[in-house]
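tool_log.txt
---
The assistant was asked to compare two proteins side by side. It first ran the structure predictor on the initial sequence, then on the second. Raw inputs and outputs are pasted verbatim so the downstream comparison step can read them without reformatting.
(1)
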Amino acid sequence: MKRVEIVSANTVTAALDCNNWDFPQCAVVNFSISHSCDAIELRFDTKEQECRAVTTHANGPVWQDSCVEFFISFDNRNYFNIECNCIGVLHAAWGPNREQRKLLPESLLQKIIATPSLGHRPLELPGTTRWSVALKIPAAIFSLSGVTSLSGVRARANFYKCGDHQKQPHYLSWSPIQTKTPDFHCPEFFGELYFSG
């Protein structure tokens, strides 16, 4: 299990280097994370062989596009999944497992600021493309788990890259996952985060 301490105002960088299910390696992804006690700042930097974004509505199936994801649990019972395609469209939910998820209302989803390097229009790019997306996630998003400040908080989390409907599907993670088929909804394999400072 991977562990990382995130000191307030400092940035930690890591790679999504776990190709748990041996799909062809068609993407290279790094992420950086920091916090300011009242928000998580997260950035994904991606280079992939195909770039696709056709989902344009909030809480739509962004995982079918070129997509990055952040799953986090503060209480070891429920977890948040915050997913974003390469044009900044968000999907977010909360619950104890894959089957029992509640979509975050759009009023709460709008509090997350997504800044994609490719803009906000739908696209399909066949060649190798570099793109990034920055997410500012206020602690208020996590109020369903009783979190109001990140300072001193311990959490369990994982970070992902996928593209279910790309010509070459792929599934990468930060912390390794030991399932027979691709499944990101596995909190038992989350790594540990500590938001200090």
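(2)
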Amino acid sequence: MSTLIIYASKYGATRTCSELLAEQLDEHPDIIDLNHEQPNLDKYNTVIIGGSIYAGKIRKPVAAYIAANLAELKKKRLGLFICGAAERLEAIKEIEGNYPEDLRNIAIAVESFGGLFDFEKMNFFERAIIKKINEKEGFTPELQTERIVLFAQRINEV
């Protein structure tokens, strides 16, 4: 059996986090972007699911995949992560609001890996909203690589 990382990303931060996570895992995982492929879980004993958060919601391909495969996911060793601009307490709420409680309860690792703003990939409207929020909040998101390392350690230990 092997490990699978599945994710959906809009601008690439979640893809980057998935790749960084894969480098930290003892077993070389398959990585699949749910925007392009729907994997069969049969050959995997460990499944790690990640998604970017926008306006408090995880990417639709992640939510749809979880809903369609919930029973099978409950049988796996599981890790769950999000990527987004929310600070720690808000990120916990986003995890709770986007991953079913029964999956969170059985997951080996659950974490927020932070996020990035890639203004070059955003449209004008998205850039304007982010800049306005950022001026008000005074918060610049960044990837939390130490959380990725700790997440991988939890997956590797079990």
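---
observation on (2): The CA atoms of residues 134 and 140 lie 7 Å apart. The longest helix spans residues 60-73.
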